[in-house]
Write a sequence for this structure.
């Protein structure tokens, strides 16, 4: 299964939705709270090519975007493929 990293912040509804989808799929992921940590926020923005909204999600080294982007991939059936989940 692919390595997933998600940068989040507290009280973020989009972050909660994204985390819930990953949990529902049984995916192990690293959640990094970058909301109040300037160094982690800078790291997130650099990795996400300037994107500064929450969450920012990575599968392996590939930046897939935010919550809406991940749900769009899921609707197309591409998310499970990227995550290495067999149907």
């Amino acid at each position: 299964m692919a390595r997933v990293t998600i940068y989040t912040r507290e009280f973020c509804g989009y972050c909660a939705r994204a985390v819930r989808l990953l949990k529902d799929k049984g995916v192990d992921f690293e959640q990094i709270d970058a909301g109040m940590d300037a160094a982690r926020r800078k790291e997130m923005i650099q990795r996400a090519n300037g994107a500064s909204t929450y969450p920012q999600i990575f599968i392996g080294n590939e930046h897939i975007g935010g919550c809406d982007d991940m749900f769009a991939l899921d609707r197309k059936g591409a998310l499970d493929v990227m995550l290495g989940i067999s149907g």
User: Anything to note?
Assistant: The first helix runs from residue 13 to 24. The CA atoms of residues 3 and 60 lie 5 Å apart. The first strand starts at residue 4 and ends at 8.
